[in-house]
């Protein structure tokens, strides 16, 4: 049985979900970002218990087909932004279509209708949060960050960052309280 989980964005989420399943005596075949597959069918009562445990960590079970597709789009986008570190810049539209086996036009229209924002704006928001994270870590120069996130230059990154946050990356770096948003709030 497949179960879909909203807001899974990292390995820690997978570990948390695996532990929650274990506590409930549910044995998964696998736990991936946004998706669980179990050996047996999971009762509605166990789903409620699981959902209650997941909510403590900001996660949530998805039941409706609409929510499942949105979450799959979000997961592909998160993976694209957080795991592409300097790899050749593949077009996200092609990647998304290939991963989900729908035309990009259909997915983009669907996402815009349900989320009230475009996929492109969502990707930019994810990139801005990733840039903030990398600036806070302080291990990379702005040029290296631009390369990791497939920007054409540090200047392009800086212009987009300022447009979205109102701050230059340098100013953000010098702030005492560095505010970031959780992925579920984007």
Set out the fold topology.
Blueprint: E1 2-6, H1 11-23, E2 28-32, E3 35-38, H2 44-55, E4 60-62, H3 65-82, H4 92-100, H5 104-115, H6 119-137, H7 142-148, H8 154-165, H9 169-174
Antiparallel strand pairs: 1-3, 1-4, 2-3
Helix pairs in contact: 3-4, 3-6, 6-8, 7-8
Summarize the structure.
The protein has 186 residues and is α+β, with helices and mostly antiparallel strands. It is built from nine helices and four strands.
Question: Can you tell me about this structure?
Answer:
58% of the residues lie in helices and 9% in strands. The chain starts with a strand and ends in a 12-residue tail after the last helix. Strand 2 (28-32) and strand 3 (35-38) form a beta hairpin. It has a 4-stranded antiparallel β-sheet. The protein folds into 3 domains: 2-63, 2-Layer Sandwich (Alpha-Beta Plaits), CATH 3.30.70; 66-118, no CATH class; 122-185, Arc Repressor Mutant, subunit A (Orthogonal Bundle), CATH 1.10.10.60. The chain is globular. The mean pLDDT is 88. With 186 residues, the protein is of the alpha+beta class. The protein has helices at 11-23, 44-55, 65-82, 92-100, 104-115, 119-137, 142-148, 154-165, 169-174, and strands at 2-6, 28-32, 35-38, 60-62. The chain has 9 helices and 4 strands; from the N terminus they run βαββαβααααααα.
